[in-house]
Protein: Glutamine--fructose-6-phosphate aminotransferase [isomerizing]
Amino acid sequence: SAAQKGAYPYYMLKEIDEQPGVMRTLVQEYFNEDGSIKIDADLLNALSQADRLYVVAAGTSYHAGLVGKELFEKLAKIPTEVHVASEFAYNPPLLSEKPFFIFLTQSGETADSRQVLTQVNAQGYPSLTITNVKASTLDREATYTLLLHAGPEIAVASTKAYTAQIAVLAILVKAYGEAKGLQAVKEFDLAAELTKVANGMQELVDEKGTVEKVAKEMLETTRNAFYLGRGIDYAVAQEAALKLKEVSYIQTEGFASGELKHGTIALIEEGTPVIAVITNPKTATHTRSNTQEVLARGANVMIISSRGVAQEGDQVVLPDVNPLLSPLLSIVPTQLLAYYASLQRGYDVDKPRNLAKSVTVE
Ligand code: G6P
Structure:
């Protein structure tokens, strides 16, 4: 079955490798032959009545939500807020007049997220759960559901559910933007882009050696590490940092590249690993100058860049995709870095200490 490890030493590696296949499955599940999208008209109707979206999630799913906000705002022009479920539950933001709630949850069982959904239902607001688990609590209790079709995710550290969440959010944005009559969205050939993403992911997972080597050189003995990025790359930096700390126990933070100099650069010393994600031509030079600043202080720098902004010496150059979908590719080498760092340090990468796959207490 899909939940067997087969020839893989760990589920995490298997699940990283499954991502190209998940992208292809999502294209099949959500697109008709004629390119139209299989999303319930009622859901699109409810969405179109909203004046603001509230994405609520925890952990990795929260980080997928940060990318979702970029997609909703940049492509479909609807204001979108992303909230950590445990904060929202007890300190809710001031809501707009017509809010619509999107719960992102791999398991569909996270207590913090459910707590918010219960409140949302009590107030009579419409909601959508995007989950990997059919008939899970958050599936049953929300007004609408979209499934991730990622297959069972066994490793505690989430990988394929993150990329599936971003892809499903992109599909939802496309359907919503089309229903709204947005020309740019109509012209955005998402099915073709997701197929490109699948091919790009395949190239990245086929080149594990490079990342394994960087992990060995930079992460085998370090105490801390930093990820940098701007815009959508900052969203990726936060997820990449969570992944690395979860499985390698290296204290890792994801920073908005420009913010590093406002304090955290004090932590950079000889040999500190700094990994920068650079995909946006508008900010590439700024982030490059941030990496120069840490290099000058002795940091070991790794750069993950997209082809358009790549420079000689960048450790990973990503295959070309639409810039808004770049997180689907840029996250892959960071997942592999986390995996190899954990192995090299001698840990059980599938079952990191103190963590549970789904947290059903608040
Ligand atoms: C736990 C897991 C994380 C996950 C988070 C949210 O903390 O260890 O990997 O991201 O819960 O889970 P969910 O199922 O709601 O996406």
About this structure: Residues 116 and 122 are 10 Å apart (CA to CA). Residues 160-179 form the longest helix (20 residues).
